[in-house]
Amino acid sequence: MAIQTFKRYEKKYVITDVKKDAILPILLEKMEFDKYCIGNKDYPIYSLYFDTKHNDVVRRSVQKPYYKEKLRLRSYKLNPNDDDTVFLEIKKKIGGIVNKRRVVLQYGEAVDFIKNGRVPKLEGIQQQIMKEICYYTSVHPIERSVLIHYDRTALFGKDDKSLRITFDRNLTADDSSDILRTENRGNFIVSPETRVMEIKISGAFPLWLSGILADNKIYSGSFSKIGTSFQNDTRRSIVLAQNTGFEAVPAGIAVNY
Questions:
Q1: How far apart, in whole angstroms, are the C-alpha atoms of residue 254 and residue 256?
Q2: CATH superfamily assigned to domain 5-244
Q3: Rounded CA gap, 17 and 192, in Å?
Q4: Are 168 and 47 in contact (CB under 8 A)?
Q5: DSSP code of 16?
Q6: Calpha distance 25→38 (Å, rounded)
Q7: Given this model, what pLDDT does residue 182 score?
Q8: For 48, 50, 115, 194, which has the most beta carbons within 10 A of its beta carbon?
């Protein structure tokens, strides 16, 4: 059974592809590739983020509050079959500490819940997490979604398996997503040469890792895939309104049921 709960610190770094290539061999002295990086290659991730009619969730997120939460459906393949495994996740961030809880579902079960509100039959901790997700959707009714697609290289610590470093590239947002069914890659969130590096750890950074970051002048910053996508859409709406004379429309994509 896949891990269903996570509690950890997450630090993000926006770096160039050149810098990623420079530090990767050094990191591999202490770390190893994720099992999904077959042949040491990256793998695709598809995350469908849900929001209310007026984008209340992402609007709050970009304000960088002390506490925020979001709901997403994650898959490792596009256009999945009904019996393929997907993950419905509720992610909370409180003062820099991330708590992620998820249920493992078949794609057909997830679609039935999102479209029809039919709660899947689960047991144990999965049942409890599903109750939390149901409460979340009662407060934040699902009326919009955006599909974020990227390719990931992931590393785990050889001695400390709680240490995880990921590099994401080709970050795009698809404005025509229908619950993971689309042929459209979407618009780039950041330039294709950009890598979003994320360090995830349950405790303090090891000294060797802090040294690598300092030696290569890599500094953490605030970055959200869905937040950046929303801000990009908002800017495009404003430019369109200025060029056409029409009123700008709040960014956000309706879920196509």
A1: 6
A2: VTC, catalytic tunnel domain (3.20.100.30)
A3: 9
A4: no
A5: E
A6: 17
A7: 83
A8: 48
- Residue 90 in contact with residue 112, Cβ under 8 Å? no
Phi, psi dihedrals of residue 204, rounded to the nearest 5° = -75, 155
Closest CA to 4 of 78, 90, 70: 90
Query: How many other CB atoms sit within 10 Å of the CB of residue 36?
Result: 14
Rg (CA), the chain: 19
Instruction: Report pLDDT digits (tens) over 104-125.
Output: 999 999 999 999 999 999 999 9
CB 72 within 8 A of CB 48: yes
* Contact yes or no for 71/87 (Cβ under 8 A): no
pLDDT confidence of residue 246: 42
Segment 212-238, tens digit of pLDDT: 999 999 999 889 999 998 888 777 555
* Helix and strand totals (H; E) in the chain: 6, 10
Please classify residue 90 by burial: count the beta carbons closer than 10 Å to its beta carbon, then call 0-12 exposed, 13-18 middle and 19+ buried: buried
Q: Which residues, in sequence order, are bridge partners of residue 146?
A: 49
Tokens of 32: 């190893």
